[in-house]
Design a protein that fits this description.
alpha/beta; binds coenzyme A; five-stranded mixed sheet; 25% strand
Length: 332
Amino acid sequence: MLKTTAAITAVGGYVPEFRLTNAILETLVDTNDEWIQSRTGIAERRILKGEGLATSDMAVPAVLEICKKRGIDPLEIDCVICGTVTPDMVFPSTANIVCDKIGATNAWGFDLSAACSGFLFSLTTGAALIESGRYKKVIVIGADKMSAIVDYTDRSTCIIFGDGAGAVLLEPATDGSGVLDSILKSDGSGKDFLHMKAGGSLKPASAETVAAKEHYIFQDGQPVFKAAVKGMADTSYELLQRNNLTGDDIAWLVPHQANKRIIDATANRMGLATEKVMLNIQKFGNTTAGTIPLCLWEWEKQLHKGDLIVLAAFGGGFTWGATLIQWGYNTE
Ligand SMILES: CC(C)(COP(=O)(O)OP(=O)(O)OC[C@H]1O[C@@H](n2cnc3c(N)ncnc32)[C@H](O)[C@@H]1OP(=O)(O)O)[C@@H](O)C(=O)NCCC(=O)NCCS
């Protein structure tokens, strides 16, 4: 019997209209376009503006686009997994809220917290549900409204992050396409360098925590940078080795978009030409769990059945890893 794999059968995405350019950031903090572009590769990010709008409001259009493209009713969806660190609320899960908003009343779902590796961890989890044979249609979302937790007076973080959402549909396949292998890692000692200090059970929200700006991202950039370069490059290289592949066999690298210098280091280690690296950091910045599915969304028309693709991420936790997929369809 042929092995059942979890194939990506459709991709959806959403980025908000508002463009937060480097020129605007120059008016908010002591920074400049030249520094931001040369140190990170980012020119602008999208920001979700408007009262009452949250992460689910970006995830919903991404999932509805998938339903339209694949010609399915939300009632057919079995499960929704949402990778996010900016859920609409601490509970219920954003996945549940998305299901309610799109009428996916037959689905169960949950959020997965792995910061910038949120999509990668969710994809492997969703793939396991498909491979188990119990579920036929699993939606995997990566979505973050980072502007909700960015301090726009902190120049070391506000230049990096943006808002956005991407999603894929996983379905069973027996033609060899789908999620083939993953190396996923986490190391909780990394929490010292990238975290949010308050709002959890350790330090519940209070007037003091708000006054001390403890509901924003804290990042010590240099150690994160070093760990990201090593983590993303090492796991991507190891993934190639254990599947007897070289950079020549890979059609695309889909890296988490945190910093162009981290992406370049990963591509170099894999022996990949720059034309094979998906890069949209200049337009969207770091949308945390959104980066990888947003790349797949933007590049969908250039992906061909049979393409071997490596997805790679590094994020808060620390969490990191790389996943090998074989693309399962051509877009007309
Ligand atoms: C944040 C990051 C871009 C900073 O770049 P860096 O090259 O490490 O910069 P440093 O923090 O060493 O700062 C270098 C100098 O630039 C200054 N600087 C920092 N931010 C600046 C900004 N926005 N504009 C202008 N100057 C800035 C610093 O004050 C420092 O000045 P000094 O040398 O006079 O002290 C980089 O560390 C990074 O990308 N880290 C990983 C981020 C990441 O991946 N996070 C998400 C997890 S996936």
